[in-house]
Amino acid sequence: MRQPVVMGNWKLNGSKSMVTDLINGLNAELEGVTGVDVAIAPPALYIDLAERLIKEGGNKLILGAQNTDINNSGAFTGDMSPEMLKDFGATHIIIGHSERREYHNESDEFIAKKFAFLKENGLKPVFCIGESEAQNEAGETEAVCARQIDAVINACGIDALNGAIIAYEPIWAIGTGKAATADDAQRIHASIRAHIAAKSAAVAEQVIIQYGGSVKPENAESYFAKPDIDGALVGGASLDAKSFAAIAKAAAAAKS
Ligand code: 13P
């Protein structure tokens, strides 16, 4: 049985007071909630503050981050390493997000390097994949996801997906309110799992596949009712403690 993972990707949002209120709110909302791993990825500058607040709240939240470099130290201006992330207790690191692919020209090959370096450093990649609207309309969704996953499998081997998280995020559903239907998401998740199973059934069976793209408290349950949807990567709704906690609770209830 895969324990669901619900993760909040805060993107470029936050301030000291917002981070404090949000994490304190989540600490309260998640009291007594079991059966789900709940993670947050604040902007890097707030990871220190987040670590302290999570500890104060009794470690109900897993700390993550939104990016990593592929070096641990040296002359790499502006970057942030796995060792530094580990220093602050961050474990779940988002890579391959469509916003980084688009705005920072990150290629499949570069993302595969990040994946490998996170694994080498004992961190958990939260590896985002997903198709554009045009690719979706052209019926290329499964092929795009397979290509993105193959970049990692080719570089790191199938076993590298052990303990990793894949987040299927159709780009057209991100921040648009136009979420994929639960049936469509399930179909793609099943195809992703089958693609991995063709290389290793054992790896496919354990890999967490999250859905991301306009997940809200109102639609969360419909996703988690599906057998191949093991959690969610949440943007907008993760910035509100009650909404994000409601999504996490829906996952815990559906998968218990
Ligand atoms: P929204 O939940 O705001 O659509 O964002 C999804 C996302 O990109 C999470 O990484």
TrEMBL record:
It is an enzyme of class 5 (isomerase). Pfam families: TIM (PF00121). It comes from the Bacteria. Keywords: Cytoplasm, Gluconeogenesis, Glycolysis, Isomerase. Its main location: cytoplasm. The active site is at H97, E169. CDD domains: TIM (cd00311). It is found in: Cytoplasm. GO terms for molecular function: triose-phosphate isomerase activity. Its EC number is 5.3.1.1. Substrate binds at N9, W10, K11, G175, S214, G235, G236. Pathway: Carbohydrate metabolism; erythritol degradation; Carbohydrate degradation; glycolysis; D-glyceraldehyde 3-phosphate from glycerone phosphate: step 1/1; Carbohydrate biosynthesis; gluconeogenesis. It catalyses: D-glyceraldehyde 3-phosphate = dihydroxyacetone phosphate. Homodimer. Involved in the gluconeogenesis. Catalyzes stereospecifically the conversion of dihydroxyacetone phosphate (DHAP) to D-glyceraldehyde-3-phosphate (G3P). Belongs to the triosephosphate isomerase family. This is Triosephosphate isomerase. It comes from Vibrio hippocampi.
